[in-house]
Every structure is written in structure tokens, then in C-alpha cells.
Amino acid sequence: MSSITAPSPALDPDSPPVSASRGRRRTELIMLIFGFALIAFAFANVGYSLKGKLPSSMVEYLGAFVVITVLGHVAVRRLAPWADPLLLPLAALLNGLGIVMTYRLAQQGNLLSAPLSSSATGIQVVYTAIGVGCFVAVLVLVREPRVLQRYTYTLGAVGLALLALPALLPSSISEVADTGAKIQIRLGSFTIQPEEFAKLALAISFAGYLVAKRDVLALAGRRVLGLDLPRARDLGPILVIWAASLLLLVFESDIGTSAVFMGLFVAMLYIATSRTSWLLLGFVMFVAGAFAASRLFSHVALRFNIWLHPFSGSNPSGNAYQLVQGLYGMASGGLLGKGLGGGQPYITPLVQSDFVFTAFGEELGLAGLMAILLIYGLIVERGLRAAMSVKDPFSKLLAGGLSFMLALQVFVIVGGVTRLIPLTGITTPFLSQGGSSLVASWILIALLIRISDTARRPPPRPIQEEGLTQVVTLQ
Amino acid sequence: MNRALRRISIAVLVMFVLLLINVNYLQGFEPASLATKPNNARAFEAQFQYQRGSIVTSDGVTIAESVPSNDVYKFQRKYPHGAEYAPVTGYDTLYSQSGIELYENSVLNGSDSSLTVRNFIDLLTGKPRKGANVTVTINSKAQDAAWNALQSDTGGKPGAVVALDPQNGAILAMASYPSFDPNVLATHNSKQLIAADNALLKQASNPLLNRAINFTWPPGSTFKIVTSSAYLTQNPASTPQTNVNSPTQLKLPQTTHILTNNDGEVCGNGSGQVPLLTAFAQSCDTTFGSLGMTLGGPTLNNFAELFGMNSKTLRIPMPVTPSNYVIPPSQALTAFSAIGQYSDTVTPLQEAMFAASIANGGKLMTPYLVKQVTASDLSTVETTNSTQLSQPVSPTVATDLGQMMLAVVQDSDGTANAYNTGAVGFTMAGKTGTAQNGANNTGLDDAVFTCYAPYDNPQIAVGVIIQGGGYGATAAAPIAVQVIKAYLASLGK
Fold first, then answer.
1. How far apart are CA B374 and CA B380, in angstroms?
2. Is the pTM of this model over 0.80?
3. Active-site hit among B221, B323, B337, B376
């Protein structure tokens, strides 16, 4: 039997190149420009609200931001032409809004809470440049996501080392003065939060490990009470990660990151094995660990107390001050917000980092917060879509894990500041002021773009002659 | 793996839906209740973005106003007369308020429901929102006299003065010493504010306390107005001329204690029976101790409460600390309670209410401080109507007591004879009190005076208490005289 295939329009020499029509790069650029318009509008809004005129520095900041992100777009065009067109514009929009909020908080404060330093906005733009630089570097260095699988154990060791580093360093270098959490490395006036990068390294490492071991994890074991329990010897790695996350919680006072790690690992284990027992086991172990920690360590117990009783006794003026001020800020914003520059977000301590979501709530209102949450939701959805459509199991696992981690991080910090769950201080991806989180978030987006590029790349065409030659398949 | 990924997607969806629901709940339904929660500086600071209404006296003196400012807030609160009017205005700081600033806050900051329509019209016409002005009943001349006298005539002793219009209960003067300058608390610099607040709180003299309505002292002999009212009401046949038992020494039952008059003096002619009026004018403790034992604690309590004591609900609109009469457990202590000792304590406002009831034919009008609220467009939002609080005595008894209080000032051996018509230029009726205090009465006596004037057409009733001032006639009465003189002069009488 033989069949004759008609020439595909894409192969027509007169039609535009394939990459332009199916790679959706033009859509990406249009979305990016739309994002620039929103950010420019927000910038102007802050200026008119606070000073009655356009911010004098708007051209420099916005111009630099546009150049940086357009370079990112050009890199995607060249290095990942098939990538999902929404990921870059969505990330850039959040990053730009974060810069606007940093600018806004640097313009106004009150006498109890001083405004951010006047250089904060410029520094945030520099971090954006570094972040997008790393984004491009990842696209250059990682042409195929599968190559990362080779570094499973190297990255695992690097990740654990980065995690443990602040705990091992003296407090003078690693402790965050405001919160007492030991999560940073201070070099002069410059600080790095290694856990932001540890998360990425460990996600890649988990993906590599689980892809190699998933059959044995999924199949061997006993069935007890309708649950497939894993073999004791296969419990080793999950116990190591569980212990590491609890140690993090105890020695670095960093409950939020420990929850994100545990959630990431359990979710990836589940994706790899499709075994509900792992999910339950991981969940039960984390809850049991957190419960025990709340009994044993006062700083964990305090988080629960603040969560349950923020308005009682001395809490509103003491331990729960930050949380209730954030809630008051969101309440004063109401449905439509006070407008950028119209609220008093600076009243809330550390509003530029952990509580930046409440600052947006105060000034952009419920409408703005829903939009921001939907942007995060869209990024996660695009990531999960890439995971589902990519063929290679390692890439699938990595994309699923990274997307879920981003979702979990948003859930932990937004849920924390809106009192849905106990508050644990972690950064809000792209929006919080600070470099480590921003750079790590851009690397995460680069990995998702690389995987979506692989997933959407059309299969290689059979070698054929040019022109209108008919291809005849013989059987 | 895709099946697991799909389930993870559903979990992610659930997480985002939870966040969206929670944010909707927080910003859609909770703002009203969060706005009133403790430490909500935003809700509090919102008021500084509008021009807050002024507080003015009934004769047009501005005692609190908001003026444009160039710092973090658009307006700065100013108190042009500072400490003098602090007991009236209170303070309005970044974090808290007191006095009229607190109790009329919703009209001053324009959020009161009575101003909603006006605010909406201002919004439509593009006029900036402004709070309503509060006119208080204070007469600036009477207030000046009270404050100056408290500052200069008492040697720095703590004390307070309240003057009432007996016919309607309007508070004409309310001064307390020592006082504080609310301007130092109106700063927008929270560090300065905390420092100033701490400095005020540390002072042993407690300048933040409004002694006119929030501190009580023993009324001493001024309580004899209550005892006499009870006696004359319970014995309708008796008059101020009726002879009553007035021994030089009164042996108290079941104790070895003997009650004597001041310095052991005889009462009247020393016969042991003197007219009630004489005993009142000379303030004989033995007479009223004896009357009190006959009347009994419960009767005295009834009359004390009719005059406004023991009331936990009195507001002017600031809550007034209750003046206390406690029914004594024994006859001996009843004798003491009848002469304003034992557990009797009163505010200076209560002292003014004693005289005001008698001056108004036995009708006690509810004291009030807010005369009227005026919107920023000068239309009247509300005016206070005077109400009667109680009727402690009948008009007849009030007339009798008026005569007795007149005798205190006009009789040659009355305790306040130094302030007779010839000496002060108007006819005043009053009652002195010199209250013992401290362990075994070792403390300095508190000086108390309650009075009204003019006698035949009462315009003003005054209560004065000077802590540790000594004799009521020498420390408290001169202050009352100056307040009355200033007020009557302002009326043109």
C-alpha cells in the first residue's frame, strides 16, 4: 500500500518561516509590550499620586527595564523559538510591578517606618538585569533539559550545602536582624539568600533521582489497609529530605522554606510514582514534624498563636503587629484600592519583602490582587502544561516540580499574609524587593521556557529534497 | 505520569481558589470590622487627611482647630489656649484621643451618619470633605477666671472648678489644675509624641487627669445640703427656723468617739437647741451628725442619689466618675456620712450640681458640654436640648435651703461671711466644706465650696474643690467668686 502526502503549506517557499508562525514569538512580544504599558501606567500613577507629576526617574528605570526584558525576549527568539509565549511576559509584568512598588516605597514613609533608601529602585533594576542575565545564561548553557540529569548528585550536594551554609556560619553573618532567621550570607552590605538557589538545585536533583528510581519506588512494597507502602530501604531518601527540612526549621527558624521543600519533594515523588501512599506519608510526616516542632520550639508555637489569635491581648501591638498591619492595609484598600501612592503600605513592617502582597492589596485593592494571583496561576498553568506535553520523563518531572514549587511558594506567603495559614516569612516571587529571590525566579522561568520549548518543538522532518517533490512512502 | 500531573494541577487549582476566596473575604467583607480593631493606625490616620472640625466656646472662642500642614499629613491640630481648655477639648494624637475630641470624634472627622448626605454632596460638587464644628457650652470669661484662679491663687495645689447654668445644665466652665498642653501631643512625629506622653504620665501630679469630672474628694460639710434636704422633706412641718438638737459634744453610740464641732466650738448660743438655719450657717457637725443618725443611712442614700451621686451612667458626653455615698454599717458612721465624711466622695461637677438643684427650684438639670454641632457649610446638624435629670427636693424645700445657703454667706457668723454682697458686689448663696482626710485625718484638709448667684435670679452655680487647700471658705470660695464675677460681667449684669 502506498500513500501520497500533499505538500504542507509550511514547506511552501513563499510562506513565512516556520518559527515565526508556530513559535508564537510575535505574540510574546505583543504581550511583553502590553506589560510595559501597564508598568508605565503604574509608574506614572505613583508619580502623579505622590508628587503631582511624572516621576523624574521614570524614563531611566522604565527604559532600563524595557531594554533588559526585550533582550530576554531576543534570547528566547534565538535560543528557544518554540517556547511558551506567555511565560516571559507574565514574569516580566510581575517583575515590573515589583520595581514600581519598590519605587513607591522609596518615595514615602512615615517617621516610624522610614522610606526605603533612594537607591533601592535602581538596585532592583540591577537585580532584574542580573536575573534576566541568568535567564539567558540558562538558555545558552542548557540546550536540552535532559543534560541536567547528568548532574543529579552534584546538584543534590550543592543544594544541601547551600541550605546548610547559613546554619553553620556565625549568626553575625547569617542572621536576618529583623526576624532572627538564619537564612542569609552577608558580604559587606550585600546579602545572598542561598536557599533560593538551593531550591532550584534540589528540584533538578530530585527529578534526576526520582526518574532513575521511580519504578522501584512505585512497584516494590507491601499493601496495608488499601495503601501501597514502600519498602523500608526505599524510605531512605525521603527520610533524608524530611530530616533536612526539619533541621532547616529548627536551626534556621525558616518554617516557610522548609514547607516548600517538603511540598516540592512529596509532589515530585507523587508525579514520579503516581502512588498516593507517598503523598499521604509525606504529608503526615510533615504535619507530625511541624506539630512536634510547635511543642518543642517556642518560635514555632508563636507562629500558631499569632495565626489563631492575632487580635487578642498584646498580640496586635506585639507579636502579631506585622500581620495585623498587613490585614489593616488590605482592609483599607477594599475592592478597588487606594491607588498606587494613595495608601500607607509603609506602616506594615518589612512591607517591601514578605508583605509586599498586602501593599498591592492596599493600593490596587481586591481587583489588583485577583489579577496578580491569576498571573501567578497562569505561570503555573503554563508550566504544568509544558510538563504534560513534554515526552522525556526527566523534563516532565522537573517542569511539574518547578511549577508546583512556584504555586506552593505563592500559597505559603500569600496564604500567610492573608491569614489563611500560619505566617511564615518567605519571599513573594518577582514582587518582593531583593536580589536572590528575583534571580532564582528568573532561572526557574528559564527552565520552564527551555522545557516548553522542547515540548512544543515539532518532530524532526524526514530529509527530503526541496521544491514540490512528492514524497512517496512505500510499504 | 500525566495522570499524577493532572491531579497536581487540581491541587494547584484548589490552592489558588482558596487564596482567591480568602482575599475576597478579607477585602470584600472584613474591612468594616478590621477598621475598628486595635492598633489600626491606618483607620486612625485617615482622619488627618481631611480637615477636622473646630471646637469653639459658646461665645465664639476657638479652642481646637485644624490648620493646613506640610508634613506627612495635610492638617495639623492646634489648641490655641492649650492647658486651660485641655479638660474640655482633650487631645487628638496619632494613636488616641480624649475629651470632646474623643466623644465627638465622628462629627469632628466628618464620618458621622448625620453628615453622610452633606459629604456626598461635597463629593459631587468637588468640595474637599470637612468635619463638622462642635460648639461647647463653655463661657470663655468664666473659664479664664476659673483657670487663672486655679493657677495663681492656690499655691500650686491640685483642684478643679465646674460652673453650671442651673436653669438648663449647660457647663459654663470646667477647669482642672494641674493641666497639660494638648499641643505637645498633637505632633505628627510619633517619637516626639511618645516622649511627650511618657513625660506627662511620669509626673506625680497627673496632669492628664480631668479632676473636674474624673476625681473625687470627700464633700465635707457641703454634704449638709443633702442631709438638710432629707430632714426638711421628711418633716414637712419644719422650717429653717425649727430648733434642732445641737450639742457641743455628740457622743456616738457603741463607740467611745465623741463628735465635736470645728475647734470644739459651741453651736449657736450653746443651749443645745439652735435653729436649723443657724446650725447650717455655722456648719455645726454635731447638729447634722445627730440629724443623720435620726434619718438613717438609707434615707441619706436616697437623697444623695437624687442629687446625682452613685450614678454610673452620667455623661457630658465624657463619662463622669461616680460620686459616692455608701450606706454606713453603724449609727456612728452614719453620723460621719451625714457631714460628708466616712466614704462620701464627690467630683467638683457634683458640687456644682448640689447648688444648681437648689438654685433651680429643686430641679436638677442634666449637665452637658456640647451646645451644638455645625456642618462645614454652617448649617446646624444638631442642638442639645436640656433635660431634667431628677428632682431632689420640692420647690418649698429648695427655697428653704436657698435661705440657709444665703445665711452661710450673708450672716455675720456664717462660714463664708467674707463674701457677702457688700464684699463681692453680688448676692451669693453657698456652702463651705473643709474635708478631713488621710490616715487619722493627718492630711491637709481639702477645701470645698458650692454656691450659686445671683440669689434672687440664679444664673450660675459653681463647685470648687482644692486638694489640701484648708478651709473651704478661704481656699475654695474666692475662686468661685471670681468665676461668678467674670460670668455675670460677661452677661452684662
1. 4
2. no
3. B221
